[in-house]
Predict the structure.
Amino acid sequence: MFAASALNERNRRVEGIYKALFGLMTVLLVVPVLIILGVLIAKGGPAVSFEFLFTPPTDQGRQGGILMPLIGTIWLVVVALIASVPIGVAAAIYLSEYAPENWLTRLINLAIINLAGVPSIVHALFGVGAFVVFFEFGISILAASLTLAIMTLPVVIVATRESLQAVPMAFREACWNMGATRWQTIRKVVLPNAISGILTGVILEVSRSAGETAPIMFTGAVTFLPFLPTGVLEPTMAMSLHLFTISNSVPNMPDEIKYGTALVLISMVLIMNAASIAFRVYLRGKKKW
Amino acid sequence: MTTLPVLLLTIGCGGSEGRTVIQNRGSDTLVNVAQAWAERYGQINPNVAVAVSGGGSGTGISAMINGTIDIANASRAMRDSEIEAARAGGNDPIEHIVGFDALAIFLHPDNPISSISIAQLADIYGENGMAEVWSDLGVSVPGCGSDEIVRVSRQNNSGTYAYFQEAVLGESEFKLGSRDMNGSSEVVELVENTPCAIGYSGLAYASEHVKMPCVGPEDACVAPSVPAAIDGSYPIARPLFMYTAGAPEGVVGEYMNWILSDEGQCIIQDMGYAPATPVTCG
């Protein structure tokens, strides 16, 4: 019926080329991830076992497992969350629901973007000056976690604010028309509808905190400590710093322990990310709009 | 760091239930033996937790100046300016020699050189040195096509770096263009895999895959070893230091005494260092 003109032909060819090109770029994006995971699983997989996770490292990490760094990372992340989630969520609620559109709000938004762009080593030095020295927390979980909390606050604020703003305005208007106050509206309508986005932000913060080395290595994480921490004013070992140490300052370190430690660290982060995606998919299924 | 508020603080009593934490930070050369001490001491005295960190002698010394640690490890002596700065903050650093370390020179196993003099090392590493290629030293290295001497060194806050400069280069600076590694193990690893390379680090970091030439004049050179570091015949051996803030007392004092006891000194000897005092170990 329609004979394909030369122009149609050409357009289709060009279309095909671009589609292939963009597809190739997408594949390229996945390749490094697969290679990293593949190498880690092949070389580190045999080392990882229940015993490896729950045995203290001995002989500078050449023997034993990763109990102290593993528990230490959990301490650091949990204390960082306790510090940053309330502040971050409250700030996001203010910025999304209350803040008037003026120069101050714009300045605050700019500050948040800039805070997100500060290199982690600068946060580390700030943490040493503020928490370790000035507030006299010493080299401790508290100092390290507060440094992590400040570093990850923008993640929580941005994720929370975006998920609050994704709640349709009509929901709020309907609620206000029933005579509800702003806070009642936020509590009963906006927050329940935004919870998936907030949790995504929180989980992203967890995975970022768990992987960071620079902010904790001067503020609270130590190379070696033969005990589990008993409180937030004690220092601790941490997975990321432990991996750094056993990779660059322990001679004759068995390769499988290095790869095994890296595998556990990356698994923690990936499991967190996967949980966040799964949770979001689940909650999106329940959305009513 | 000096612009940060410097306050005197005592860390130590961090934990609950009477457990005391000793903060110990500094030299990468000492970090392995410091960990071995901490591990053993934790079994002897479970009420004291020794937290060890590396980062380099400079890291430990600046933490001592800031007052954030109890013991600084250093593979070089503190400079007068650093001692002044620490005193100004209320931490009077007291020096303890806890052992000695032979600084080994590392070559790729294929490198034919088996002895090297201090003058040759200065020629390779020093800013005024003329040796740029292996043929300047009269050898050709199999597998090193470019003939270039790949100089492996340490980052500039390392005590090993500072000691090497003092002992080998004297007043002059390092030649630019060396590969400056962050840890002794990294130096060894790079030299293992690079036929053109030469590097240096504490003897305790040597692996089976590097060659260690004897050091000194060709007819009287000495191989790096713990006995040669003890008797002083090895030309580039250095003391290893721990600094405490003020005279060590309480748990820190007990820990320092234990380190200098036969048991502590046998641990450092087992790790490939020379003990500070002669010991006989089982």
Notes: Residues 6 and 12 of chain A are 10 Å apart (CA to CA). Residues 6-47 of chain A form one domain. The radius of gyration of chain A is 24 Å.
